[in-house]
């Protein structure tokens, strides 16, 4: 009888030990995301070259590099729709080389090339805040030796609208690590709307710090970004109209439920409040 009771006790102890053992945890994947949290890429790209990762687009890479997608495309001989593949090495910034010290015609050629390059560069980058915020730029003089773009130099957006209803809890900052957009607080599930007509060029969650992110291209000059969504309701290459619901507000990669909204002018962050209607 004693031996039977002892055997039963030993069996119970072995069962309890088995129940308390832990298996290896599964990779952490966020809600509405197919990307493991540990595999997310850093938000900013500061290097001169970059290796493409799965799920990225040239627009999302340019967004992280604070660069105009056309500049990166030009450096890498890419043409629309800018198809890239995982493992591809992209040049992000053009490396500067010292001018040759050769005499005669080579030196003259270098000076001429540098002058033309400088003029071309000035045409591709906004030289003042008026162009940045969509004012007229017809006062600029055209250079005969510089090819003129097929479309207007600065393309204005006819109408912007607020991307969400709610309280403005953070504004744009020009500080090195300041807020690159504005933050609008709300409730989970609130509608996030396109601020202007455009095409979705990124919809995913691979950018660390942005959560579920949507990027819309409005024209060759302007992009807008919508971060921390609970759900993304659009797909890449989908056309959207101003006011279309593109996502549901959430707190992915954020400490509270809110929408982080950015406007980019030729890759650079600009103050969204300069574009949105005054409340």
Keywords:
279 residues, 20% helix, globular, Membrane-bound Lytic Murein Transglycosylase D, Chain A, 10-stranded antiparallel sheet, Glucose Permease (Domain IIA), alpha+beta, 5 helices
Explain this structure to me?
With 279 residues, this protein is an alpha+beta fold. Among the domains are: 39-91, LysM domain (Membrane-bound Lytic Murein Transglycosylase D, Chain A, Roll), CATH 3.10.350; 167-274, Glucose Permease (Domain IIA) (Distorted Sandwich), CATH 2.70.70. It is 20% helix and 21% strand. The strands form two sheets. Strands 3, 4, 5, 6, 7, 8, 9, 10, 11 and 12 form a ten-stranded antiparallel β-sheet that branches. A hairpin with a 4-residue loop joins strand 7 and strand 8 (222-232). It is globular and about 90 Å long.
């Amino acid at each position: 009888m004693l031996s039977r009771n002892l055997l039963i006790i030993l069996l119970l102890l072995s069962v309890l030990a088995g129940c308390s053992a832990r298996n290896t945890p599964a990779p952490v994947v966020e809600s509405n995301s197919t990307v493991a949290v540990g595999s997310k890429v850093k938000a900013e790209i500061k290097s001169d070259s970059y290796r493409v990762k799965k799920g990225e687009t040239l627009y999302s890479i340019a967004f992280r590099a604070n660069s105009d997608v056309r500049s990166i495309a030009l450096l890498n001989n890419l043409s629309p729709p800018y198809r890239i593949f995982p493992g591809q090495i992209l040049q992000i910034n053009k490396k500067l080389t010292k001018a040759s010290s050769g005499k005669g015609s080579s030196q003259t050629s270098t000076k001429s090339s540098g002058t033309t390059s400088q003029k071309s560069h000035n045409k591709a980058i906004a030289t003042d805040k008026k162009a940045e915020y969509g004012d007229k730029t017809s006062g600029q003089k055209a250079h005969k030796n510089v090819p003129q773009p097929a479309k207007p130099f600065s393309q204005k957006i006819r109408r912007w609208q607020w991307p969400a209803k709610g309280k403005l809890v953070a504004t744009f900052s020009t500080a090195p690590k300041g807020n690159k957009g504005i933050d609008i607080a709300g409730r989970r599930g609130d509608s996030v709307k396109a601020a202007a007509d455009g095409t979705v060029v990124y919809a995913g969650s691979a950018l660390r710090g942005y959560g579920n992110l949507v990027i819309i291209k409005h024209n060759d000059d302007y992009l807008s970004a919508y971060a921390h969504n609970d759900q993304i309701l659009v797909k890449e290459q989908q056309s959207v109209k101003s006011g279309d619901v593109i996502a549901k507000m959430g707190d992915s990669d954020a400490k509270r439920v809110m929408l982080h909204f950015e406007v980019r002018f030729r890759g650079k962050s600009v103050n969204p409040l300069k574009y949105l209607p005054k409340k």
